[in-house]
Amino acid sequence: MNISLYIASGGSGDLISAIALSEARNDSALFSSVVWERASLDPHVGPRGMNDIFGLAKESERRLISGKSFIPGGWSPLPQLVEETGIPVFYLDATLGSTGVARQISDLCIAYSIDVVYLVDTGGDVIASGREPGLRSPAIDTLLLAACVESGMPSLVTVIGSGLDGELTSTELASAKKELAPYSEELLPDHIAGRTYSKLSWFPSEASLMTLLAVGGVHGAVDIKSGIDPVRLDEKCAIATNYRTNKVAARNRMVDSIRGSKNFIDVDSALVRFGCTSELSKERKYDINRKSRLIKTISKLDAEAIFDSVNTSATHISLRRIGEILGANKKSGLDSLDKILRSVLENDYLKPILHLDTFRHMSKNCFSGEEKE
């Protein structure tokens, strides 16, 4: 049986898609990810280095994320993912730059006789050229793409849930796909998507969970963030498109700027010179002390604020977007919001999205007239 290594391209959330794809392919698989969570989950600036993570399991010179792993001062869903699924997730240290990560990938492939590496990205920003105006967070995708090339190991870039991260437009994605000429395509079966969702719907990854829901037949236009168009959930989300890594790297103009980097500071600086906004600077500006509302109930005033703010072309709204509108912008606030939505809407709420018609109906009948915090 072939052995595959699945790398989460943009961060831990891409592991959800990787797990589903591995099950669909019925291959023997190992998984790997960097540890860099949203500032709302972890205030640490930049990716976590090996000395910033406690409880990593040691296997020879390699490190595995375990159920006992934790990051001081923050939270990552990876230990819980490993605890609940039992899958092996190897830690990739992004602080070592593309050269160090390439060495880790090569070492894993040699040690475990890996046949092919899949760099899995939910949404598709990994196939960007680097000049797209909506591209917000290319650092880890670009770093891992460069590392895959530098490792010299056989690899493919897999994109699923095209467009669901809201970074590239449908026109930009179509242009990239045409230019890259896919190596192959496959469909994620709905029964596998459903099984993965039922196990991992708690995971804080909107793009990956929306992909699974779309494969299962939940379709519509979802408002995920202010200032951008709603993303579309449809039958195309089930398509996993595989690209040759060298072609993707050649198209992505950012790759050459960071290839050979020795640390993440070099990566961030190179991307700034390329014209990107520094992701480290953005995190440094994040106010870790800003108040996050802990929602105990949703009032009619809250519902009105949501309807006043939501994109008028949307059929659904995401949990994170509701939190953005209501000021529940940290893990505690989003957890409390998720809890109340589950309590009030029960099966009509499929995390991380809510149908606006359902919400509108429920707001008339279930929500209180005033805040009860």
Automatic annotation (TrEMBL):
It comes from the Bacteria. Pfam families: DUF1152. InterPro entries: DUF1152 (IPR010581). This is DUF1152 domain-containing protein.
